[in-house]
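step=encode ok
step=design start
structure_in=
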């Protein structure tokens, strides 16, 4: 969307995430979250009816977010065999979180996303374990991007996909590099995509015909 204009005359990319127009899919996702919350006893029948009505009439993603902001994000199952310092939690609501450079990969990473984007760049990460358990819950839009290098394998077979898609752009690549990290992705995708890819080349690398890795 290089020069795409919004109805107000501003560029679409200049609109904050909470101001983006809500789609039918976004509304349906929030209604499902509200019904699940009511089933768990978090909302009364009256509250559910009021919020569902508001969700169906919502115009923006921000309007929808306000209807679920006081509800707990779906928790990850606890594992008594994993020490707390080995578990990292990311709770992202709107905006973008980008983790890159020499960050330390934990044993388990719990990512909860509600209308925001998270990018995890593993290309220079410090890897001390052979396996990363990545538990994901994505709702109301938002994308999880995993940037990897040869030797890092991402397994998404146990990820439940409701609305959205898993796009693995590393499959079929020929590499004799031994696997140093297996990222086992579990959880639920209720909106947005999970993208697995190699790093993109800079302009200088593209001009020189160099690889990004």
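sequence_out=
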């Amino acid at each position: 969307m290089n020069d795409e204009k919004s109805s107000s005359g501003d560029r679409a990319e200049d609109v904050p995430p909470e101001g983006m127009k809500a789609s039918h899919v976004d509304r349906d996702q929030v209604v499902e979250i509200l019904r699940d919350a009511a089933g768990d006893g978090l909302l009364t029948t009256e509250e559910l009816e009021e919020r569902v009505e508001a969700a169906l009439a919502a115009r923006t993603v921000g309007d929808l977010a306000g209807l679920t902001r006081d509800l707990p994000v779906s928790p990850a199952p606890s594992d008594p065999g994993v020490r707390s310092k080995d578990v990292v939690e990311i709770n992202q609501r709107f905006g973008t979180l980008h983790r890159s450079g020499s960050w330390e990969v934990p044993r388990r990473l719990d990512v909860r996303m509600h209308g925001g984007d998270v990018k995890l760049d593993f290309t220079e990460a410090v890897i001390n374990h052979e396996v990363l358990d990545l538990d994901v819950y994505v709702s109301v839009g938002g994308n999880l991007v995993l940037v990897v290098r040869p030797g890092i394998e991402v397994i998404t077979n146990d990820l439940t996909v409701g609305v959205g898609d898993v796009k693995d752009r590393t499959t079929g690549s020929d590499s004799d590099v031994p696997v140093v990290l297996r990222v086992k992705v579990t959880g639920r995708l209720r909106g947005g995509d999970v993208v697995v890819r190699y790093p993109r080349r800079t302009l200088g690398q593209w001009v020189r015909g160099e690889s990004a890795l």
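step=design ok
step=annotate ok -> The helical segments are 24-39, 45-57, 61-68, 203-208.
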